[in-house]
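Researcher: Next entry in the queue.
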Amino acid sequence: MINRIEKYLSDVAMIPALAGHEQKMTAYMQKEFEVLGYPTEIDTFGNVIAKLEGKDNKAPIIMIFAHMDSLGFLVRYIEDDGFLRIERLGGIPEKVLPATAIQVQCRDGSMVDGVIGVKAHHVTPPEEKYTVEKYMNLFVDIGAKSKEEVLGLGIDIGSPIVYKPKFQKLLGTRVLMSAVDNRGGCTAVLELANLLKDNPQESTIYLVGTVQEEYNLRGAMMAARTIKPDIAIAIDIDGGTDTPDLKGLGDIRCGHGPTMSLYNFHGRGTLNGTIAHPAMVRLFEEASERTGIYFQRSAKIGGLTDLSYVQLEGTGVKSIDVGFPGRYSHSPYELADMRDIDSLTLWIYDVLKNINKDTDFTR
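Model: Structure for this entry, 363 residues:
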């Protein structure tokens, strides 16, 4: 499974898919689902939905999903001399931006390389050397000499900009890559598709790649309105706290197994979050005991997933966030351990095998 997970990660890391512009990731997920024999559809919003028919129509309907989009930028303004001013989309860490390699997507889908400009060290006054420049003051340099040249490439106001894609293996089973938040989750969904394809469960299961999570969590709730699930399992990155700068903030460590979020809350802006349904917590705890898969518990403010809105659909959905540890989230390159994604998929798979019409979902 690790080899297949590595192949998926190396593929999806290189696919640009800014929130609202996920078509390339949607096409990839659709192709992979269909190769495995799943009936697949793409809804109006752009979510890709694969269906595995269950053996018992009285068993709960299950939606398992991960968001396909990444954060990034849009072209806000084009200078007469060909420099691009940018608008952020999603939670961009401004301190990492100067000198960061990027790609701009043209109208025909092709990508143009560029860099976010940075003032040369030799001419930076002392009072600026320890400050973080606001993104509104930054610019992108693609090597163009004029606004006309930029427009001629098919780049205009609103064109998507992403960190330049990268996939690199590090020591052991660790990878450094673009948008492991949440292409690691997409990989887990695809790996589940492999595990389930010849093993239909009691429940009908929908495997979903969702859109616009980084833009106020919009896509998944639209998929849920189509699926009308009884149970929702969201897969997303969980911020690792095992680096020197984060000691004491939690106990989430890369390479030590998948994660379960008992509580998440944004705490600013979008006042939303999820408290896991107690019955779902029990199901995953029991699966851990059966399989011997160790999992890590998370409870913190500062992040959330698109489960926040899915749980509120219909008369309410029994919901839980699970995922994998990651480092350096929302920066140009993020780190994860493939073993965590591997064990995450096996953990979820065991839960699915033990859900039926008689499962106790009392709180």
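Model: Residues 35 and 235 are 22 Å apart (CA to CA).
Researcher: Noted, moving on.
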